[in-house]
Fold:
Amino acid sequence: MMDRAQAGSSVLVLGSGVSGLTAAYELSRAGHAVTVIDDYDQPGGNHLSCNIGAYTFDIGAIFFWSNSLMLDVFPSATATWEPIECTTGRVTPARTVRSYPFDLKREFGNLPLPRKLAILGDVAWHRLTHFRKRSVEDFVVRRLGQRLYRESGLDIYIRRFCGLPPERVTYTFAERRMQWLRQKTSVSDVARGVFRRFTRKARAPALQGFARPRQGFPHMYDQAKRQLEAAGVRFSLGAGLTSITRDGGGFAVTGATGTWRGDRLISTIPLAMTARLAGIDDIAPPRSMMMTTLFCRFRGTPGFPYTVLYNFHRDGVWKRLTMHSNYYGQVGGDAYFSVECTQPDEAQSPEALFEDFRASTESFGLFAGELELVGHLETEFAYPVLDEESARNREVMLQRTEQMGIESLGRQGAFDYIPHSSMAIGLARKALAAAAGRGR
Structure:
């Protein structure tokens, strides 16, 4: 075996989320001496869970699938996963509950013929004439037309998810987040569906879904940490980071618990935080949305059969709920779930958000019974706000940190919307391979 000191440089990795852990894994395999540093006192980044009594909650609908790259990278962590059946629905603008993202049979198939023809004509017209690529609205309208876009409530959900009107959200966001829409509305995909229907050809087997272990994300990510430590990776958690400086040809990272030095620095923590630590304070940071997650207990009969439910209706601040008790089991007859509320502007209290949720779901007929708020968690850097101003600020800030020699990775580090952990692993690997090609 090659001596580690001779094989490569010493690398400091800021952040112990999926991107940071992937960087540590790949770099340690390449022979580098790696130290992972994080303000959190446990690995996993924003994959956060909260146990309140016998209830267990997440800050979002965080699931894994049988084709995930995590199975290859962190087998000890994925061995803790619990198999689940994940079904997904949405509240429509008509206050009905339908499957997500669309229920074409029930929502389109039952329409009167003149309405069907009007929608199909609108879709065809926009396919032939709408080629503008400025916003997420352009992306969707070209594929669905204006009628279906508005009537489905997708415009409402995009506004709630992004904290901005859809016409202000960049086209790049749509290309990253909404590939499912491109696939489902492509001529080839529709043709394959028709072919299967008439030939009765079997579909490919569905992917198996998984949830983190019932004990919580710390149990899962502790396995990944142990795996990396066995490979020589060092961890400094609860670091209380205060500054990043150049130290000769390398870097010095200082925190409340010490100073760490390395030849190379990779950051997966929020980009604005990296810039602040590095003393880059003359640039307006790209904007992130805060999310408040409500933890709720319910006893009664829910008005929907789904594990995850999205809000496509205009009423209610909440955007998505996840029924954790559907796969972890009820507690003493109680169901329990998390509710995500993104807050782009003036923040509301958890109590006010819960009352808003209660009022809207009561009008939708979703929860007939005893509903109680048992806790909450606020996430400061939940989602990047992807308008043109944030995109420009992101590019300038990345250029300045790169000029200092800092490499930025991941959803937080590169201020890049990455919808799932498998993509985070793939993008981290790609960036590290490109850096290796440049001699880093």
User: Anything to note?
Assistant: The first strand starts at residue 10 and ends at 14.
